[in-house]
Amino acid sequence: MESGAGTSKAADAGRIAEAVRADPRAGGMSPGATLLVAACIGLAAGWIDLGLMLLNSRVIQRDFDRLGGDFPWLIPSGVAALLLSVGAALAGLYLVRRRRPSPRWVVGVLAFIASLDACARLPLELWASLLLSAGLAVQSGRWAGRRPDVPLAWARRAVPLLAAALLAAVMVTRGGRAWAEHRAVSSLPPASANAPNVLLIVWDTVRAASTSLHGYGRPTTPNLQRLAARGTRFDLAFSTSSWTLPAHASLFTGRWPHELGVDWKSPLRRDVPTVAGHLRDRGYDTAGFVANLDYASVETGLSRGFAHYEDYPVDLLDTLDRYVGLGHRMELSTWGSVVSSLLEKASGRPMGRIGRSREHAKRATDVDRGFLDWLSWQRGRARPFFAFLNYNDAHSPYEVPDPSAPGFGLRPTTLRDYLTLQRWNQVPKASLRPEDVQMATAVYDECIAHLDRRLGLLLDELDRRGVLGNTIVIVTADHGEHLGDHLLFFHGCSLYRQLVHVPLVIVDPRGAATGRVVAGPVGLRDLPATIAELVGEVDGAPFPGRSLARSLRDAAGPPGDAPGPLLMETTPPLVMMNEGREPVAKGPMRSLVAGGLHYIESGDGTQELFSLEGDPEERFNLANAPTAGDVVRRFRSSLESMASGRKP
C-alpha cells in the first residue's frame, strides 16, 4: 500500500509539473529569461534582415546599399536592440502585475515583431505583412506553449554564438577600416615645402539664384560675400549635372559625366584619377566629411584618394531608422521629425537629433565637428591637408535648421505644414497650394543662411587655430533646386539654369587678387586642374579641365584662354518627383553654355535656347526664332562632337 501510494503521489506530482508547464497561468518566464529569449530572436532576426537587405540591393535592385560600411553589424545589433526593447516591456509586466508572462506570449509577440521586420524587406503590402507575421506568431506561440522549456534552452546555446558573430563583424569592418587608413597615412611621401592646405566646401542643393552673393533679395549669404571680398567670385559658374553624383564626380576628376560611368545606380569608375589621389601621392593628408549619404558616400566611389572619409553616422536613432528594416519602412524619421518639430514650436526649445529627417541625419554642425576633430589630430603631423566638406542642410525635405534664428517669412505651424515639408519629395506637386511653395522657399532660404552662418564660424575657428592663413578655400555647390520655376520641383529633373548655375568663390591667401569678379562662364569641371596649379603640382596632373588659377592672380583681363563650351548632362532618375512632367522623363538630357547662350536638348529631341544675360530665369525660348537656326545647328553639332570625344 505504501509503495502504491508513493507511486501515485509521484505520478500526481509529474502531472502537476506538466500542467504547470502547459498552463501559462500557472508559471511563466522570469524577466531575465525573457530578455535572453528576446536577444536570441533579435540577433537571429537581425542576420536574416541583413541577408534580405543584401539580396534586395545587390541581386534584385542592383542598386547602392545606401548604408555605411558598418551595416554588417549595425543591422543585426539594431534588430536585436528593437527586440530587446519589446522583451523589456514584456518583462516589465512582471513588475507591474507581479505575474510572469507565459512563454507562449513572449515567443509569439517577439516572433511577430521579428517577422514584421523581415517582411519590411519584401515587396509586400502592409496587410499582407501583418497577416503573414500574425500567422507565424501564432504558430511560434503554440510551439512555445507546448514546450515552454525549449526557447530558453535554445537561447542559452545560441546567444553566445550569435553575439560572437556580431563581435567578429564589428572587428572586421571597423578594424579593417582603421588599418587601411593607418596604412594609407603611414605610406605618404614627403610633401613640398610650404605647400598650402586646400579646403573644398560643397553646399549640396544650393542654387546661385538664392544667394545674396548673386543679388538675391534675402540676406542668405553675408559670410560668403565677405569671403569673396578676400578672393575671387565667379558669377557664371556651372556644374556638369543637376544632381549630386555626376556633379561631384566631375568636380573631383575634371571629366564630363558621360566619361565617368556614373549614374543613379553606378559609381565612379575606378580607373579615373581624382584630385584627392593626386594630392595624396604628393604628400597631402586627405579627408572627406559628407552629409549627403545617398550619393556622396563611400560606395559611390567619391571616397577614392581620401585616406580618411566619414559618411554615415553611428548612433542608436539612426540605426533604428535607417538600418533596421521595420524602422526604415515605417518612416520613423519622418514622424519623429514632425512630432518633435511640433514640440519645438509648443515649448520654444529645440529637440535636437530627434527632429531630423533621414536625409538630415548629419547636419552642418556634425560635418564641422568631424573635420575639426580630424584637424586637431592632423596638425601634429606637420603635413598640408586636402579636406572636402559636403553639407546637405539645404536638401529636401526642408526643415527649419535653427528655430531661434530669424526666418524669411512663412514657417510650418500646423501638422499639415510639417507633413507637407517632410514628404516634399513624395507629395503630388499639383496638390500644393501657393502658400506651400512660399513656405518651402522660405525654409530653403533659411537653410542656406544656416550654412552661411556655419561657414563664418568655421572660418573663424580655422583662423583662431592659425590654419586659415595658409589654406586655399573653395566654396561652391554641386547643383541647384527647382522651387516652382518652370512648374518643377526638386532637382535632377531638368538642366535649366536654376539647377546648374551654382555659386563659386575661391580664396588663395598667398597674395592673390582680392575682390575680383569673373563675369564669364566657368565650369566646376575646371576645379581639379585649378587646385593642381594652385598647390604647385601641375607636372603630371591628369586633369583635362582648364585651370582658373590665372583669374585669381590677374587683377585685370580675361581669365586665361577663351573657354570652350560647358557641357551639362542628366539621365532619368529612379523616381519622378513631378509626376512625369519633368523634361528628363523624355530621356537623357544634355546642354551647352557658350557664346552667351544656354542650349538644352531633351531626350525626345526638343531644343531650347536661352540668353544668359538677358533671361537669367530662362523664360523665353529662342530656339524657334527665325534667326536661331544656324546657332541651334552649331550647338547640336558641338554636342555630338563632345559626346564622341572630338574637340568641338
Keywords:
globular, single chain, nine-stranded mixed β-sheet, about 650 residues, alpha/beta, four-stranded antiparallel β-sheet, Alkaline Phosphatase, subunit A, 2 domains, 19 helices
Describe the fold and architecture.
Residues 196-536 form the Sulfatase N-terminal domain. It holds the Pfam family Sulfatase. This is Choline-sulfatase. The protein has 648 residues and is an alpha/beta fold. The chain folds into two domains: 18-172, no CATH class; 195-313 and 362-562, Alkaline Phosphatase, subunit A. Helices cover 45% and strands 12% of the residues. The chain is built from 19 helices and 15 strands. Strands 1, 2, 3, 4, 5, 6, 9, 10 and 11 form a nine-stranded mixed β-sheet that branches. Strands 12-13-14-15 form a four-stranded antiparallel β-sheet, covered by helices on one side. A two-stranded antiparallel sheet has the order 7-8. Helix 2 crosses helix 6, helix 4 (103-119) packs antiparallel against helix 5 and helix 12 crosses helix 14. It starts with a helix and ends in a 5-residue tail after the last helix. Residues 12-26 and 556-561 have low confidence and may be disordered.
Shape: globular
Strand content: 5-15%
What share of residues is helical? 40-55%
What is the distance, rounded to the nearest whole angstrom, between the alpha carbons of the first and last residues? Answer: 113 Å
Rounded Rg: 29 Å
Detail the poorly predicted runs: 12-26, 556-561
Q: Supply the number of helical segments.
A: 19
Mean pLDDT equals 90
CATH architecture assignment of the largest domain: 3-Layer(aba) Sandwich
Please give the CATH class of the largest domain: Alpha Beta
Count of domains: 2
Q: What is the CATH topology classification name of the largest domain? A: Alkaline Phosphatase, subunit A
- Would you identify the CATH H-level superfamily of the largest domain? Alkaline Phosphatase, subunit A
Please report the total strand number as a whole number. 15
The major sheet is characterized as:
9 strands, mixed
Structural class: alpha/beta
Protein name: Choline-sulfatase
Pfam families: Sulfatase (PF00884)
Keywords: Hydrolase, Membrane, Transmembrane, Transmembrane helix
Enzyme class: hydrolase
